[in-house]
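Technical annex, item 7. During the second reporting period the consortium partners agreed on a shared format for inverse folding records so that results from different sites could be compared directly. Each record opens with the tokenized structure and is followed by the designed sequence. A conforming record, contributed by the partner at site C, is shown below for reference.
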């Protein structure tokens, strides 16, 4: 037998093993990252006046001195993954949510769900759907809403790049607007606007309103308050095509009296395997499956979005990409 051929076969096997090891142990990266956040490492590294040494980090963290080399191991992994270049981890407090047992447990039920007839994986694991769970568990509800709000820093960047999209708008409803941080940021840039944050009653209970910021509790499948612009950020990817169609039809009704000014503004992911870098597509596909596991949602390609807009009776739309993972879509009646 040709010894080279044997070696070739061995290589294929070892390559396959390395690939499987890499992904089957992916959670080690998540958990190490979670540990760094739990210990408050990003803030210490960021606030230190010069590059920090492991010894200094150990003493800042008040860790037992014999943990020094283990911290070195943890940090080597995280630095290898670039988490500490350009203060990436600083000011981002939403990653913790992904490691919450409420979010992680359903993954163990994915196979069972495939074979069963529950509508979501989350329900297979927890017995009730995601939004119902949030409604019944104030602690998780608070944690989830805070994590969602921490993504709002992207809103100031959106506003900076998309002034003209909001300029003619006099009234806006932020549907599924959570605790309202996105809307507050929008109102800082456009103080003449009148905004309504519309979300489930348990999310908007006890929020303090101002002259031009109101909170309304309700169900977007029943009715959406009227305005010039209906805004959805990170909402439609939570829902199936049938559900998005219903929500879009409600949105069309809500802008019925706005005339030429009426439009729907959507910030969500657009899958684009051809244009996006491989890692970006990877992250979007992970979110796609995450939406399948937690709720009844999915991520969509431009063609899939377009089909829904058409079916809901809208006549044209445009897409502004370039917000990292998210794009902004304007949809017109
Ligand atoms: C993923 S969060 C997005 C929050 C916020 N828009 C943001 O970008 O951070 C989805 C929101 O939809 C809300 N939601 C779920 N079902 C709803 C319904 N039937 N009617 C109105 N809002 C709903 C949830 O309570 C949650 O605040
Ligand atoms: C861990 C991340 C969870 C998450 C992120 C974005 C969403 O829209 C969402 O809705 C259920 C959940």
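Designed sequence (site C submission):
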């Amino acid at each position: 037998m040709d010894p080279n051929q044997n070696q070739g076969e061995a290589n294929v096997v070892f390559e396959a093993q390395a690939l499987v090891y890499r992904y089957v142990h992916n959670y080690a990266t998540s958990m190490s990252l979670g540990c760094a956040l739990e210990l408050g490492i990003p803030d210490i590294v960021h606030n230190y006046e010069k590059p920090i040494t492991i010894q200094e980090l150990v003493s800042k963290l008040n860790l037992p001195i014999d943990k020094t080399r283990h911290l070195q191991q943890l940090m080597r992994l995280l630095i290898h993954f670039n988490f500490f270049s350009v203060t990436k981890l600083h000011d981002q407090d939403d990653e913790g949510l992904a490691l919450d047992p409420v979010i992680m447990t359903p993954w163990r039920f994915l196979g069972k769900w495939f074979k069963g007839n529950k509508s979501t994986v989350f329900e297979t694991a927890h017995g009730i759907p995601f939004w119902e769970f949030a409604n019944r568990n104030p602690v998780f509800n608070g944690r989830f809403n805070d994590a969602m709000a921490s993504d709002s820093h992207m809103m100031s960047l959106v506003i900076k790049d998309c002034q003209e999209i909001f300029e003619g708008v006099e009234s806006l409803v932020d549907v599924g607007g959570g605790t309202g941080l996105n809307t507050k940021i929008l109102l800082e840039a456009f103080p003449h606007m009148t905004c309504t944050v519309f979300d489930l009653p348990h999310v908007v209970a006890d929020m303090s309103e101002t002259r031009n910021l109101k909170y309304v509790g309700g169900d977007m499948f029943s009715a959406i308050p009227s305005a010039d612009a209906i805004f959805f950020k990170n909402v439609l990817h939570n829902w199936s095509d049938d559900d998005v169609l219903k929500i879009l039809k409600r949105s069309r009704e809500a802008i019925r009296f706005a005339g030429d000014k009426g439009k729907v503004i959507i910030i969500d992911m657009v899958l684009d395997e051809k244009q996006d870098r491989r890692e970006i597509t990877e992250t979007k596909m992970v979110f796609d499956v995450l939406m399948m596991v937690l709720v009844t949602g999915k991520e969509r390609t431009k063609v899939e979005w377009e089909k829904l807009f058409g079916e809901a009776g809208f006549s044209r739309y445009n897409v502004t990409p370039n917000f990292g993972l998210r794009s902004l879509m304007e949809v017109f009646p």
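The longest helix spans residues 3-24. The radius of gyration is 23 Å. All partners now use this format for quarterly exchanges.
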